[in-house]
Amino acid sequence: MARYRTSVGIEVHAELSTRSKMFCRCPVEFGGEPNSRVCPVCLGLPGALPVPNRSAVDLAVRAALALDCTIARESVFHRKSYFYPDLPKGYQTTQFGETNPIGYGGGMEIEADEGGVKRIRIRRVHLEEDTGKLIHGIEGGTGIDYNRAGVPLLEIVTDFPPDITSATEARRYVQKLRDLLVWIGVTHGKMEQGGLRCEPNVSIRPEGNDSLGTKTELKNLNSTRSLQVGIEFEVARQARLLESGRPVVQETRGWDEQTESSYAMRAKEDEDDYRYFVCPDLSPMQFDDAYLEHVRATLPKLPDTVRERFVNEYGLAERDADRMIADRAWAVWFDACVALSGSPKAVLNWMISDFAKLLNESGQAVPGGEGEPTLVTPEHLVELTRLIADEKLGGKAAKSVFAETFRTGEPPGEVVTRLGLAQVSDPEEIASLVQAILGENRPLVEEFRAGKSQVLGFLVGLAMQRTNGRVHASLFQEELLRRLTED
Amino acid sequence: MPGWATASELAGRLRSRELGCVELTRETLNRIEEDPGGLGAFLSSDRGEALRAAEEAQRMLDAGTAGPLTGVPLAVKDNICVAEGVTTAGSRLLENFVSPYDATVIEKCREAGMVIVGKTNLDEFGMGSSNENSAFGPVRNPWNPALTAGGSSGGSAAAVAAGIVPLSLGSDTGGSIRFPAALCGIVGFKPTYGRVSRRGLVAFASSLDQIGPFARSVEDAALLAHTISGDDPREARMRTEAPISLGGLRDRPLSGLRLAWPQQLAGPEVQPSIRATFEVAISRLIEAGCTCEEVDLPMIRHGVSTYYIIAPSEASSNLARYDGIRFGRQVEGTDHVATVAKTRGALLGHEVKLRIIAGTYALSAGYHDAYFAKAQRVRQRMTLEMDEVLAQYDLIVSPTSPVVAFPIGSAEMDHLTLKQLDLCTIPANLGGYPSLSLPCGLAEGLPVGLGLTAQRGMDESLLAAAWSMEQELGSVMPPSDAGGVR
């Protein structure tokens, strides 16, 4: 079997996290009663006119800047005409042309399959409106829900010829793009809700052959995993065709999640002539230096920069740094702890273990994240790590203290005092505890002296039990050992 | 009977309690119902709603909160959305369409206490010059019922000319206000593009459409223009200017007013009788102190062909929403595309289909550059030429229409000839200029309109100049035995 090279171009559509739709004031939400968030504008009633949503434009510029794009000085909306029942006006308001989209000529770095980083060039970042949704099987027919019609979408298209050369790179690209867009607050990025959709086009060519093969486009992929599996399937399917001497047909194919296979949707020849022209209801958008400076100033440090700082300044391992930048609110919270002179490693350990688990169980999140804000503050966590470092709190008790702080928002120091959980590390207290334990367990002492060293752990356990885990385990053990061996 | 009283006279009589608002509304509604002369100017009229509005206006008058047009009846072209009753746009397809909202101009008229008495007939979607493209029959001219009232706002023009209502609203995409105003002998005004909100106007060609008033006097036209104009945050192409102001309307003497007459609008295209009447009017204005010079505007020659690429292109896109799914009538097909095709095939008129096809063609890949893109470039150059002339002159003048009102069903008026009739009005739409048609005398016993076009945003000085000209030229009135109501 011949060896093939794979080329993948990707179109990503991300719903912008604005409160209202692109050209009207209807709210943007997921689900709900069909056609409960519609108005004359998004239903395309006679006489209705669009007014662009300023904050959608701001978010699009923000995204284009984060993706290293050139920002158009002047950018217009076009009408893209085709007939489909979910398209209320008979045209979609979108942006056409090479240098007209809000952003063009950008790029983003991803980890390459062969190691190292690789820049995936981005051809365009533009704004458009979403369509409605067909709902099949309503009273024996098809219903249309226009709640989604007019929701602002950001379309991000990779450049040609494609830089992505495998299914795994495609997955990494979309994952990283999604994380970046969520990070800068442009989209919620929920693929399962259709908040972020990706449509790859895939082609293969025999190794050594310079010209790209015929491509097929994949639709209906609703996770990054489907994206990868879908591309792998497509590559294999195309290879089988070529092996058997049949041509690859240029077409759009759907992805079936159940069978994990693709099926032909429509051939490329059937594609409409979209009759693009500048939408006469809208004025050109102008982006001057002052505006771009303003947007740039409100753009947070990007994940790659933060990740690098976590590795270089905080000494985190690459893998740990990745975990801390998965979510911007999470990274900001972590940073706040370190800024309070917390030890990065101690803070990290708490965050990725107990804290993450409690947040997950309760559906809470750090401020700015997804969920009810937690009562735990960076001050709390830093205080806790100090109590431990200063040997005022034992590891086991610390878990209880943290759980209590998480539940009530009470500072750890106060929890320790209220519940009497302070670590027993005073030499005299420890000595009398050892005295008491030894006094009550004379047979065990004999066993130890007879050479049964496991007894030691058992005795430490007894001390722990008696003090509700507060005793400083190593100090106790040290003292115990001293007493057992001195006689 | 109020008959030919102007809106300002009526408003004065309402304020002085000489006339009651409900009484005036009732009389108006009766005249609409009677349809004197069988003009066919109205498509619908909501009696109950009109009388309710009249009572409300009377309360404003009684409370002393009345404005200059409070209680004055208003007829509205049926392509402007009014929340009660249907808005048909003259089309079978929208025969049953009830708008859930008022157009911005309607909101403003209601706020001013005006009483909406009915919706007027028009060429389907505003496409036509003779009102013969209405799905609901033509509109007859109050000067002679055998003749057309002009189009596309034929109903609004005839209703005012016949004395049924003192004021009406129309829309003008290539002359649809000014042309019928000229043929009916009244004032018709298309404001600067972007000074009156288009929100709620059933779109024909979005970059050209503008709503404006029909009136029996320039002052009335100015009052209604003032009422409906001004910024609308729900329209994205508004100029951020205040409403058209009324101050200074009477303060612009004719002396020193510089008029430019494009030689391209003075040739054989213009009927000799029209040209004669027009020239008499110009010479009277010159006697009164105006100067008038012939100017060369070569690109104007391409106005009609440019317009008939751009307007149908935009229309083909604006009318794509009429698929019969969310509103309007539907003829069901086997699938979506079949339903759209059957609905439009059965319910749209011939001229509308013609323009949709022409526009679709002009925008299609492979033809876009040769037609649509080129037309946009011509439009730009024509606008530059006109801007240059308007930097040196106050107004561009020409006859509004090259012909007087012609017979309904006239065989000579095939659709190409009809389109040529817009040659004098189209340039103002392509350049977004304010433009007005003022009665300037008769030719063959029928009214002739004087077309005046000013620089964008100069609506006030255009109206002021027109007011002074009106003092000089007087007005014309249809003979009472020809369907006109005195």
Task: Walk me through what this model shows.
The complex is a heterodimer of chains A (487) and B (486). Chain A has 487 residues and is α+β, with helices and mostly antiparallel strands. Chain A has helices at residues 40-43, 54-66, 167-183, 224-243, 289-298, 303-312, 318-324, 328-339, 344-362, 378-389, 395-408, 412-419, 427-440, 442-449, 455-466, 473-486; strands at residues 4-15, 70-71, 74-75, 78-81, 91-94, 103-111, 117-129, 133-138, 141-145, 152-158, 196-206, 216-219, 251-256, 261-267, 277-278, 285-286, 364-365, 372-373. In chain A, 40% of the residues lie in helices and 21% in strands. Chain A has a nine-stranded mixed beta sheet with strand order 2-6-7-10-1-11-12-13-14. In chain A, strands 5-4-15 form a three-stranded antiparallel beta sheet, with no helix packed on it. Chain A has a two-stranded antiparallel ribbon with strand order 3-16. In chain A, a hairpin with a 2-residue loop joins strand 8 (133-138) and strand 9 (141-145). Chain A is elongated, with a radius of gyration of 30 Å. Chain A starts with a strand and ends with a helix. Helices cover 38% and strands 14% of the residues of chain B. With 486 residues, chain B is α/β, with parallel strands linked by helices. Chain B has helices at 7-15, 21-34, 47-63, 104-111, 154-161, 178-184, 218-228, 272-287, 303-318, 336-347, 350-363, 369-392, 415-420, 426-431, 459-473; strands at 42-44, 73-77, 115-120, 140-141, 144-148, 167-172, 187-190, 210-215, 258-262, 291-295, 395-399, 435-443, 446-453. Chain B is built from 15 helices and 13 strands. The A-B interface holds A 40, 43-52, 79, 81, 83-85, 88-91, 144, 273, 275-277, 280-283 and B 80-81, 87, 89, 94, 97, 99-101, 103, 198-203, 205-207, 233-237, 313-314, 316-317, 319-323, 325-327, 336-337, 340, 360, 363-365, 368, 372.
